[in-house]
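Late entry, written up from scratch paper. The run itself happened at the end of the previous shift, but nothing got recorded in the book at the time, so transcribing now.
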Amino acid sequence: MKSQSVSYKPSEKADKRPAALSQFNVMVRKEIADHIRSWRFAVLITLVLLTFIAAMYGSSSNIKSAISNSNDPDHNFLYLKLLTTTDGSMPPFHIFLSFLAPLLGIGLGFDAINAEQNNGTLTRLMAQPIYRDNLLLAKFTSAIMVIACLFCALTLLMVGAGLCWTGVRIEPQEVLRIFTFVAISICYVGLWLSLSILVSIRFRQSATAALVAIGIWLFFTIFYPIVINLVVKLILPDPSFLSKAETAYYNELILNFTRLAPNQLYTDAATTLLMPSVRSLGPLNMEQMAAAIPSPLPFRESLMIVWPQLTGLIAGKSACFALAYYLFMRREIRS
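Output as recorded:
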């Protein structure tokens, strides 16, 4: 009898795995359909499209002067210039995206759990023979898939418009840089999506969860640099009494504190990938500037520069989702 019971347990677990995967796929498809059919998604995608069109118009009107500037080491990268060049009337696309991408993540996740509970569907859903963690994973995965499709479509639209307008062949390095930029943008939105799902679990009312998520976004976008500047003026000594080495040390320290903000991490990573001539994200001394050659870096070297920023975004997203997972798995659904 013991041999029969031991041989039965692995097969039972093996039978549960396809069932759990099938449940997860069904829930992901249902969540994707709900996102696409909602008015909220239509408003968010309209904002992103308008931002993309405005940024493309500003870059296309100034692209000829940017390409003809031989003093610019990046003047040969036409398709990268479409994302970074502007006529001065509006910011470039990656700056626009660092401001609007958090709204996309917050808008898709601030009522992911509390809306289900307020409508009474969460209790009925958990009464079914499904795994609780599949619900949370489906909420996150479906939103990420929708965001990834949106950003990939915008990227392909930009490349296609550039090909039709200029007829210039896109370089392989530009393809790698652009799609790595898209991947980092998806990771950046995923961080705010994880945070919004976390507040949707913590707060029962959707309005409260939305206000908390937007408040955190506004703090890191607007108030956090102000707080850093005030602390620097109060704590650090007068720069006129510091040596060059001490000034460089304090500047690096201030920059490291600034990089605790997700938008700063994203801006640093996007700027380095879309501008191959960027060689460092910190202050440079005169010896480094004298030895530097004004030429674009290979893709691998640029990726090594932004690797700390990328890992920081991934760590923040993982921490928010892990905390949301912990709170949801320990939550009493019937209350």
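The two ends are 43 Å apart (CA to CA).
(Scratch paper discarded after transcription.)
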